[in-house]
Give the backbone structure.
Amino acid sequence: MSFETKIYTPTVGKAITLEQFNNEALWRDAYTSEFRDKQGEIQKSKRYKSSIATLYRCIDIRAGTISQVPYSIYKITNNREVATSNNFWNNSKFQWLSDFSRLMYLTEASILLTSEAFWLKQTSATNKNLGFRWLAAPYISPVYDTQYGITGFKRELNNGAMEEFDKRDIVYFYTQNPLGEIIPDMPQALSAAMSANVIFNYEKFIEEFYKRGAVRATILKVDRSVAPKERARLREFWQNFLSGTTNAYATEVISGDVSAEVIGEGAGDSEKTDVLRDRRKDIATGMGIPFSLLFGDSSASYTAGPTEEMNFLKYTIRQRVELIQNQLNEQFFLENGYRIRFFVEHMPAYKDFISSQFDMFKKLTDSLLPASFAAKLAGIVLPDDITYEDMDKFVAEERERQFKEKERIVTLNSKIQEGNVSTSDPTEDNNMKDFQEEVKRFKKWLKNNKGKKDLSEFKSDLLSDKLKENLS
């Protein structure tokens, strides 16, 4: 990253005293036109991605995970869910979401490699949304204004012509530079690969190693009695021998003693060193991916895999998803009367975590804490149309329903025992029919289980234990 700077003093263009000149507090640097070497960064990112398999895999894992995060789209006016990642085909307005997963994959990959991603809004003649067209980041750039920020976009075509877009035509994703105001940060892939030159040089070494016939660096020792012509012929033979696999099995006979001393390592020896593994871990760390997800680290414990995958979703994917979600809502959905929400917590890796959340929730509610407070302590995420206070209301209503149901059953049990089964309430008549059917089923059970003393083996929600004794 480079900057154009201009120096200001309190008396620009005027004579100043020596004391003012030497006072560093009166001097400051003002960044008048921040810019980045975008094409240079992209070329480096492409080179590292194509040369280092670990980096390529990191990008693929992150982009693939982002593309699988479930989402829902809500109407702003009534907060009603109108489409989800599973049923968008049911709504003709959102059938363009069929391409959404691909766009999400490309967006994450592009942000990692360039810090930017661009979607072109496509609409019909009647202003109906038709989805988005992907625009490759290397060929399009924002147009900046020192006062208004981003005012538009320019895209370079294959023939050298420039295509201009209004700011409202593009959905622009970028990771902001914390040391700048309007420019993107350094690509994360480039930052992660900075410590990976060892891997890059290793790959080059492997290529050259096999080009010279898979022979280690070697010194040839000959007796002093060997004639200069013989030495020259041996040198020429050895150079040809190392020129590639076509000469790997060549043979030469010379007069005199020759011995070889290996002074270098082969491909297999260097692969076993900790240096390469440490550099790969550096890349995985820089990309926010647990090393075990890439290579299945055998040193990890049995529970490390699920735990690290969970941490990957919580601390890497969630952060990026929220960035994409906010920029999508700000630049597209809100202006059309909708909003989108992604649910990282619905990913499969969250299953065990959610189970532990509900176990904690149950323990807290069993200790008579309010459901809303227990849910907050357990970290339970609720749907958008439900608040934590609603949980207290739901619990109170359910307790009231259960109390009334038990009260009704006790009342009907008493009536059966007293023989008073007549009622003018049609609802209660239906309930009595259910009881009578249950009594018939119980008597049939008694007949088939003659001599049974343990009446509790007959499971019934309608007949109390006392009533079973009376009926038997």
Observations:
- Residues 1-13, 28-33, 298-304, 421-427 have pLDDT under 50 and may be disordered.
- Residues 91 and 197 are 50 Å apart (CA to CA).
